[in-house]
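$ ./design --mode recover --in tokens.txt
reading tokens...
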């Protein structure tokens, strides 16, 4: 069983949505959310409060780290004249814990960000986020 989620970057000219907004500057992300017709009646103050709540969530932090790794690998590949390696993020489930409990994370253990030649992680994975869709 698997679950598909969005990539880190939107395809072509699509607008950023959902988790793709995590890597933007916070003010820009709020402006993007408010420009969505589905959020037309939302107030800026409410979005600010939601942004504050999300700052405590480990998932946006993991997306931001993935973006930092992407930028670092891009710079390194360009300086060495090599192609950029595939970058993915795996969100891991603790398989031997009682799955009926959903306690909050106490430290940065929510994700593993990795690079590899073939794009495959060196671990068992539950959810993977890619930079772009490559079918």
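writing sequence...
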């Amino acid at each position: 069983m698997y679950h598909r989620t969005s990539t880190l970057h939107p395809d072509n000219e699509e607008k950023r949505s959902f988790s793709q907004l995590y890597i933007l500057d916070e003010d820009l992300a709020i402006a993007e959310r408010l420009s969505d017709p589905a959020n037309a009646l939302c107030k800026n103050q409410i979005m600010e409060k939601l942004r504050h709540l999300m700052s405590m969530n480990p998932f946006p932090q993991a997306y931001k780290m993935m973006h930092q790794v992407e930028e670092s690998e891009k710079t390194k590949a360009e300086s060495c004249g090599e192609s950029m390696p595939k970058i993915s993020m795996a969100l891991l489930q603790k398989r031997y814990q009682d799955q009926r409990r959903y306690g909050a994370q106490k430290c940065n253990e929510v994700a593993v960000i990795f690079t590899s030649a073939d794009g495959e992680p060196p671990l068992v994975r539950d959810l993977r986020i890619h930079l772009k869709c490559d079918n």
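exit 0
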